[in-house]
Amino acid sequence: MPGLLEKKYQELVTLGRIDYDPAQLVALQQLQKLQDQLLAHAECKQKLMLRKWRLPPMCRSLYIFGEVGRGKSMLMDLFYQTCPIKQKRRVHFHAFMLEIHNFVHQWHQQHDSDAISALAQHIILTQQLLCLDEFHVTDIADAMLIVRLFGKLIDLGLTVVTTSNYHPNELYRGGLQRELFLPFIKLLQENTDTIYLSGDKDYRCGQQSAVNTRFYFPLNEHASEFAQQHCKQLTNYAPMHAVRLHVLGRQLVLSAAFAKIAMTSFHELCVQPLGSSDYLTIASHFETIILTDIPRLNSDLRNETKRFITLIDALYEYKVRLICTAAVPLNELCVADDVIDFARTHSRLVEMQSARYL
Ligand SMILES: Nc1ncnc2c1ncn2[C@@H]1O[C@H](COP(=O)(O)OP(=O)(O)O)[C@@H](O)[C@H]1O
Ligand SMILES: [Mg+2]
């Protein structure tokens, strides 16, 4: 009987969303095994807690490494999504390190005791599983925090699933005082199973030339997954935040952005009463815009359609990369109307999907 993760993978293959990849299978099976163990562990823990017995042994952590674009993050994501335990967290390694530095800083302002022990206790109370994407160590301050924190977390029984482009032995290679980091590598070797994702296909390269993957329809459950997938890949899983842009002495707030990437919706940009200057500001500010939930445009949505046309003109002008989810295919996006001229917009949208435009 395939497990939840294996089923999900199979489902995506069947839907044509991903290719069946034998190189991913080894990692998939191992992740599935861990998922089953975590669930059994969580159930057992709950029963035992009621009777105050000893806790069952912890589940071994996993460290997945390999070249870029092999599907490490995708597999970890699927694993995380389908993992049926409550106390889980998935976070990008950089965001996690930032949190640790902040925690340590704040702790020391109020306490004399050891910040790392306190943090480890805090984590273990709220998490049974921690998924860390893109593990990578470049500076001594991080290296020292990692050595101490992960030693404690593993001791306390946290299960960590990590992706990285580096074999454990290659971590922090050439780094300052690397000998102080070596205990962490030993810890990894003793307490985690290492999986090498050995596929020879870089899926990311393949995607760069794909022209059909930037306009998704219809607006079903996979549409938001599509937008999220693009978003994660572009931002490298960094969290998005609201941004304020200045437009002619006013402020324009977009709900989700990171660096030069914005994740927005038809509602946010075209239902709100925005105008040309807003769109030009947005277009000059961002390199990529993920625009979700575009409805079929018709005379009932006259103002919204006009705004959409102005928006596309601005994005085209500034060569912004556009990724969309819509209710209908591109050639059915706007119902012909003698007031609204959609031909230019249609042609621009087509061109914006092309490899040449990008
Ligand atoms: N088997 C597959 N078939 C199609 N696309 C895939 C497959 N595995 C991964 N991808 C896609 O390739 C891209 C890169 O994958 P990702 O997991 O980010 O790679 P890595 O973390 O190893 O660098 C992602 O968009 C992902 O969805
Ligand atoms: Mg990755």
Class by alpha and beta content: alpha/beta
* The number of domains: 2
Q: Could you please say which CATH topology of the largest domain applies here?
A: Rossmann fold
Helix segment count? 13
Strand content range:
15-25%
* N-end to C-end Cα span: 44 Å
How many β-strand stretches? 11
Helix content: 40-55%
Bound molecules: adenosine-5'-diphosphate, magnesium ion
CATH H level, superfamily name of the largest domain: P-loop containing nucleotide triphosphate hydrolases
- Name the overall outline: globular
If you average the pLDDT, what whole number results?
Answer: 89
Q: Profile the largest sheet.
A: 6 strands, mixed
CATH class of the largest domain: Alpha Beta
The ordered H/E elements are HHEHEHHEHEHEHEHEEEHHEHEH
Proper CATH architecture of the largest domain: 3-Layer(aba) Sandwich
Molecular structure report:
It contains 13 helices and 11 strands. The strands form 2 sheets. Strands 6-11-10-9-8-7 form a 6-stranded mixed β-sheet, sandwiched between helices. 49% of the residues lie in helices and 18% in strands. The chain folds into 2 domains: 4-196, P-loop containing nucleotide triphosphate hydrolases (Rossmann fold, 3-Layer(aba) Sandwich); 210-353, 3-Layer(aba) Sandwich (Rossmann fold). The model is unreliable at 208-212 (pLDDT under 50). α11 runs parallel beside α12 (302-317) and α12 packs across α13. β10 (288-294), α12 (302-317) and β11 form a beta-alpha-beta unit. It is of the alpha/beta class.
